[in-house]
Amino acid sequence: TGMYLMKRSLAPLQVINDTVKTIEVNRLDKIALSDNKNELHDLAVSINQALDRIEYGYKQQQQFISDASHELRTPITVIAATPTFMPLGKDDPAVLNESLTAIKSETDYMKQLIERLLFFARSNNGTLLNIYEINTANLLQEVYSEVSLIDKEHQIILRQNDEALITAEPGSVKQMLRIFVDNALKYTPAGGQVTLTCQADEKDRRYVISDTGIGIPKEDLERVFERFYRVDSSRTKDTGGSGLGLSIAKYIAKANNAELELDSTLHKGTTVTAIFQRTQEE
Ligand code: ATP
Ligand code: MG
Fold this sequence. Notes:
This protein has helices spanning 2-21, 39-85, 93-122, 136-150, 170-186, 245-255, and strands at 132-135, 155-161, 165-168, 193-200, 204-211, 259-265, 269-277. The protein is α+β, with helices and mostly antiparallel strands. A hairpin with a 3-residue loop joins β6 (259-265) and β7 (269-277). The longest helix has 47 residues, at 39-85. The model has no long low-confidence stretch (mean pLDDT 87). Bound molecules: adenosine-5'-triphosphate and magnesium ion.
């Protein structure tokens, strides 16, 4: 009787063992659950939940690869097609010029896209390696100086730049601020204003980037942080972007323990705020 009972109670282990043996990343069979609610049942439920998480992650990766390939296909199609038209422009400098400009702009776009894709490929499960105490004002000043050099079409204003310390990885925080400023410039018509601010108080430190641009519709506010999401692609046709900027910014904020807030009014402008906690030592 003892043998029989032992065999019976260990039978679920056999089921678990058989199922686990067949598991591959693209074939995640679940363990059939018995009606007996005991420890082995709980173990099987936990394994199934872990498999669900792996499956979700795997599907996300697949989707990412497919979106990325799709994004790369358009510029490559343009570049591949252009030389076919170039002989037509042999005697017409305007046509020739247009072809070369198309190749240049598609190549630039591809370069930026590849850099952004590499960011995700290299990112280390959300952990950043070089965390320091950094001076908030220096960082914003650098970003301000860089964009002021590159962009002459907008009024770029450094309104307030408080000095304080944050514990973060400087390179990534700068990259995040550049993403915000890049958007502010891209989605604000020439002549508009882009304002950079750093505010530090008792509670926290805030980087605020505001613009007087086209704004984001309410229903898109949450979605703009998704990978490859762009608001109404027709209105952004000539601003060429991959829709990855804000998803990278969100990733960087999370890795640095910062929070993001996005506030926007259509046709009026957009404000992005990154909130860092003050460091312990202060
Ligand atoms: P890129 O990968 O080159 O940054 P992108 O600018 O399209 O491409 P995101 O930076 O992720 O991608 O922004 C997503 C979308 O959110 C944009 O396509 C744009 O429609 C909207 N958006 C972002 N910032 C602003 C802004 N300051 N004003 C208006 N719309 C914005
Ligand atoms: Mg962008």
